[in-house]
Amino acid sequence: MFGTEGDHPPGDRRRAWRDHLLYNLNIPTLATADPLGNAASAHELLPFELQVATMNVSRWPAEFEERRDPKNRRYYWASGSLPDPKTDTQSDLAGIRAGRVTLTPLTIDRTRHDLLAAMQQWGLGTRDWGLGTGD
């Protein structure tokens, strides 16, 4: 891992900013415990395996439990569990399940650039939508 300013390849941080790049770091509880399952203290750093991984995009089942908070307000808790992916070995979820720390490079821009030109033909920019001015 990079530890000092000079350890980073030149321009990497500037490029990450320009490309709207961010990193998702997952540290599963298993990665912070010794082989006997004892949690590390705050000042200890146990050896861990780091996996550079893709982002898992599995869909969670639509199962929710209605619950109440201490003030008796209703909220919903996602209760479903992901199916066990048999072939997924490279994603962050697979790494977490194996007790590895995972690092995934992500991008912020989720724009469907392939649809922009077609949407320009919809003529949405000049239409009176009847929404009023808010007066």
Short key terms for the protein model shown above:
135 residues, disordered N terminus, 16% helix, extended
Descriptive notes:
With 135 residues, the chain is α+β, with helices and mostly antiparallel strands. It is built from 3 helices and 5 strands; from the N terminus they run αββββαβα. It has helices at residues 12-18, 92-97, 113-120; strands at residues 21-26, 50-52, 64-68, 74-78, 101-107. Strands 1-5-2 form a 3-stranded mixed beta sheet. A hairpin with a 5-residue loop joins β3 (64-68) and β4. The protein is extended and about 65 Å long. Residues 1-6 have low confidence and may be disordered.
At a glance:
With 135 residues, the protein is α+β, with helices and mostly antiparallel strands. Helix content is 16%, strand content 19%.
How is the topology of this model organized?
Blueprint: H1 12-18, E1 21-26, E2 50-52, E3 64-68, E4 74-78, H2 92-97, E5 101-107, H3 113-120
How are helices and strands ordered from N to C? HEEEEHEH
Sheet with most strands = 3 strands, mixed
Number of strands: 5
Rg result: 23 Å
The fraction of residues in strands falls at 15-25%
Helix content: 10-25%
Q: Give the spatial strand order of the biggest sheet.
A: 1-5-2
Average pLDDT reading = 75
Number of helices: 3
Distance between the termini: 57 Å
**Stretches with pLDDT under 50, minimum 5 residues:** 1-6
Shape: extended
Determine the structural class based on helices, strands and strand pairing.
Answer: alpha+beta
